[in-house]
Design a protein that fits this description.
This protein is an alpha+beta fold. It has 7 helices and 34 strands. The strands form 7 sheets. Strands 10, 11, 12, 29, 30, 31 and 34 form a 7-stranded antiparallel sheet that branches. A 6-stranded antiparallel beta barrel has the order 14-23-26-25-24-27. β29 and β30 form a beta hairpin. It starts with a helix and ends with a helix.
Length: about 575
């Protein structure tokens, strides 16, 4: 039982859970990557200007921007002074960037600085504290560890409990001597034996001793000094390096140098009343008044016109000959034609002979009327002969019905075509419409205030609402729009996005479409500048306005500085 108790106790001790001290619970989460070395910096904001100064070696770099638009301020005069620091002016070194040499940056400590800024005839006084750290500030102190069983009273209680249990088990299952039925008549005096209680106490003491030894070897709880509690409630230090980084709270730290590189611009959000739009899918079609189609009037064979054949993309004018068509004639029609032609030629010879006789005996014997009738008959027969010439020598001219560019050319030299075959299609690329699939409610011309189309490349094309079809098409409402100024990217059959403004006006914040980006969960959001070098994401609810702007219905407040340029780049910072 002694061995069994010892084995159970060792198994229980080896399965113990290591517990960290207060504020030192570093669970399974991976430790965050080490941040870049902090750069001493000072941030100051005025009524119209904001200033960020960073210290690198002996140089102090100053970034001066406008608060509302984040636009760098050029041509400014900045004078820097402080306690024990003589006033000195910074020199321009880039767009909105100024530098100065400062030997006092070698001395660690807090330095209260004053910046006198004069820009565009306006003066502003900005102030801040620049903290230059020393090498000793990096030492956060040692962490002491209390060890030994005396510092862990719970182990004493556990050892005492196990010892009492071992004592009980040893006493309950101690060996009992049974006297024999027939004791011997003469026995030698028994040897002195160790009392049973002494053996039990020995076993219990051994169990307690083993328990203390095993308990003292268990992992110990680390107790930090006062002021060194690194628990979950401690907020992470703000990054102060020179690289963009996303903070644990979701905000993005973007140094001024990176803002210059990414060309970050902001606009204060202001409430406006706008008429929201509906996004439709449209297809580019040709203007019916400037679209032409050339079909074969009869069966025949295609021949070249003026030595060439019209092709796709060729610019033509109304009346230009596109091709020639040689009519095809059956064999039986050729025989009938030959018979009729011979009959006409015979009548023509007879009439010519008659006219010759009449002219020889003309005078008082032959009336002039008869001679004129014969001449008229001869002219008629000659015209019939010209008409009845062999049809294989006749060619029909296929002419362009409208001016424009050939979009379809289904002909080849020598090709045999049938009647009503479409040979050419001509459109005017500057005269096109867009047919959009809409919904009921957007078909009233009085409600459609404006419309625009957006192609695949993001170009905005203004549209003029013409009307709608009188009947639904596949439970949708076809709407027709005229393209006022066609873009070269628009061609017949291209699918575009059509934005139609209609309905009751609503209040919201109008921002450029480029300001709205997608979060990791797929929802729309905008980035708002909350500090000179910090940006926060704001989930929003938007409605389309036109091809370039959207209306933010919810998620923003008046005065928020919304990022309108480089929002997508900020959204990619990790």
């Amino acid at each position: 039982m002694f061995r069994l108790s010892t084995l159970i106790f060792c198994l229980f001790i080896s399965a113990g859970v290591v517990q960290a001290g207060p504020g030192h619970d570093h669970g399974p989460e991976p430790a965050a990557a080490a941040a870049a070395p902090a750069v001493p910096r000072v941030v100051a904001e005025g009524s119209q200007l904001e200033l960020v100064a960073t210290a690198t070696g002996h140089a102090l770099t100053i970034y001066l921007d406008r608060i509302a638009t984040n636009e760098p301020v050029d041509g400014a005069s900045i004078e820097v002074s402080g306690e024990g620091i003589a006033p000195v002016k910074a020199k321009p070194s880039g767009p909105g960037t100024y530098t100065l040499e400062a030997e006092w940056l070698d001395e660690p400590g807090s330095k209260a600085l004053t910046f006198v800024v004069e820009a565009n005839g306006e003066m502003d006084l900005l102030a801040g504290v620049l903290v230059v750290a020393s090498a000793a500030d990096a030492d956060h102190g040692a962490v002491s560890v209390s060890s030994g069983p005396l510092a862990r009273p719970e182990l004493w209680l556990l050892a005492l409990t196990i010892g009492l249990g071992g004592f009980f088990l040893a006493f309950a299952f101690r060996p009992v001597r049974i006297p024999p039925d027939d004791p011997p008549k003469a026995a030698a005096p028994p040897a002195p034996a160790r009392p049973a209680i002494v053996e039990v106490l020995k076993n219990a003491a051994e169990i307690v001793l083993i328990a203390l030894l095993v308990a003292s070897a268990m992992p110990r709880t680390a107790v930090a000094h006062e002021g060194h509690d690194h628990g979950d409630e401690a907020a992470p230090a703000l990054p102060g390096g020179s690289a963009p980084v996303k903070q644990p709270n979701g905000e993005v730290f973007l140094p001024k140098a990176s803002q210059r590189l990414l060309h970050v611009r902001t606009v204060p959000a202001a409430t406006e009343t706008a008429q929201t739009g509906t996004e439709l899918v449209g297809t580019v079609i040709a203007d019916p008044a400037h679209e032409g189609r050339v079909q074969a009037p009869m069966e025949g064979q295609i021949e070249l016109a003026a030595g060439e054949l019209s092709y796709v993309g060729k610019s033509v004018k109304e009346g230009d000959i596109l091709a020639l068509l040689a009519p095809a004639m059956p064999v039986y029609e050729r025989g009938t034609l030959a018979q009729v032609t011979a009959d006409v030629e015979g009548k023509l010879r007879i009439a010519e002979q008659k006219l010759a006789r009449l002219e020889r005996i003309s005078g008082d014997y032959i009336p002039q009327r008869e001679i004129d009738d014969t001449r008229t008959e001869i002219e008629s027969l000659r015209t019939q002969k010209r008409v009845l010439e062999p049809k294989n020598e006749e060619r029909l001219q296929l002419k362009a019905p409208v001016s424009g560019i050939i979009s379809v050319a289904n002909v080849r030299a020598g090709q045999v075509v049938s009647a009503r075959d479409t040979l050419f299609e001509i459109v005017d690329p500057k005269k096109i419409w867009i047919e959009a699939i809409g919904i009921p409610g957007t078909d009233d011309a009085g409600k459609v205030s404006s419309a625009s189309a957006v192609d695949a490349e993001g170009h905005k094309i203004p549209l003029t609402y013409i009307g709608r079809a009188p009947a639904l098409r596949q439970q949708a409402l076809p709407l027709l729009f005229k393209v006022e100024d066609p873009h070269e990217s628009l061609s017949i059959g291209v699918t575009v996005k059509v934005l139609v403004q209609h309905g009751t006006p609503v209040e919201g914040f109008i921002v450029p479409d480029a300001a709205v980006v997608r979060a990791t969960n797929g929802l729309p959001q905008v980035w708002v500048k909350v500090a000179p070098e910090r940006f926060a994401a704001r989930p929003v609810r938007i409605a389309p306005l036109d091809g370039d702007r959207v209306v933010v219905i919810a998620g923003l407040a008046a005065g928020d500085r919304v990022v309108v340029e480089a929002a997508e780049l900020i959204n990619q910072v990790r």
